[in-house]
What we know:
There is one protein chain. The protein has 380 residues and is of the alpha/beta class. It has helices spanning 2-9, 29-37, 76-83, 87-91, 108-125, 146-163, 192-204, 208-222, 254-270, 343-363; strands spanning 15-23, 54-61, 65-72, 96-102, 130-136, 180-185, 226-231, 237-242, 293-298, 312-318, 323-330, 333-339. The strands form 2 sheets. A 6-stranded mixed sheet has the order 2-3-1-4-5-6, with helices on both faces. The protein is elongated. The two termini are 33 Å apart. It comes from Cryomyces minteri. GO terms for molecular function: GTP binding; GTPase activity.
Amino acid sequence: MASTASQSLAPRRQKQRKVLLMGKSGAGKSSMRSIVFSNYVAKDVRRLGVTIDVEHSNIRFMGSLVLNLWDCGGQDGFTESYLDAQRGHVFSAVSTLIFVFDIESRDFQGDLISYSSIIRALHEHSPTAKIFVLIHKMDLMPANTRHSIFLERSDIIRKYSEREGFSSSVSGRNGERNNGVEFWATSIWDQSLYKAWTQVIYYLVPNASAIETLLRQLAEVIDARELILYERTTCLMVTHVTRGVEAENPYTDRFERISSILKTQKQSMASVLPSPNRSLSHLFPQAPISQANTALRTHSKHTGIPAGSANFAELQIKTGRFMFFITRLTDNTNLAAAIPPSEQVFNTARLNIQLVRWKFDELDIATKKKVEAAPAPATG
């Protein structure tokens, strides 16, 4: 008994995931990495220089999950080195390859040849690796042809992938961890970048399905229409649960929009002067903006806090048709909740989330401190 207790209180070992970020030079790899993990905004990435050889980043995600990200320069000389002298070093023990295609590339055939050579080496050294193909800079294509162009390019790349032993796979929201290839259209100027990287993170988090199950149970207890779990540092969604009428919400990109808003809040917190407020009300078209009663409590003022560490305590929106709040769930996650318009339901939901935090701490990859005993359940 004592032995079991001591094991449960011991710090959990770090879980490392090796992630390769590859593609031809100028495809936009470093730009998206800086936006997702370094709190850059799209207009600031123009000052980024060319990646020389490989830039290694150990990114702590959800506590002790470490993404060992290899941002690989895309110049031909570097690619030849990866495939020859550094072949075993680069492609061994890879969990995920993110390959970026520039939709405006003038040498798509050359890009395909490079891609084929890379995934051939990947299959040789890490045959179970997952591949995410990001067809990037889609904002440069005419809006009425983007989808058809994306499907056309995806179909061609899919055939090259299958020749090298990687089949296509369905995006996983059911807990599967199969290898294969997924395709995403992305741009740094809209929410598509967050959507694609959310899928990457969902695949890498080892206990995402268990977290999702617990979220579903919590949603039923507090009568939530929707619960969305965000990682605090990157503001990326980890997973979500949607129930009832919220399944009909026409804003299918609302999760990524909230990611963008949370990221903007971090950036404004880190600046000396506050940036203009951004409203969440457009995510809920059924509620007139005049009805919104928004309360935002922050941990600090605009005093130059590093963007990666700036976090708010809670955000609340109350209307006649819905209520919404985002609050801290664990040291590494925020929880967004959409619930019916009732003060009683709202207050009970907030209380129950506080009471269940210890349970999510147990699932959190990061628990480095002792998990406290669960509080006694509230009685009516």
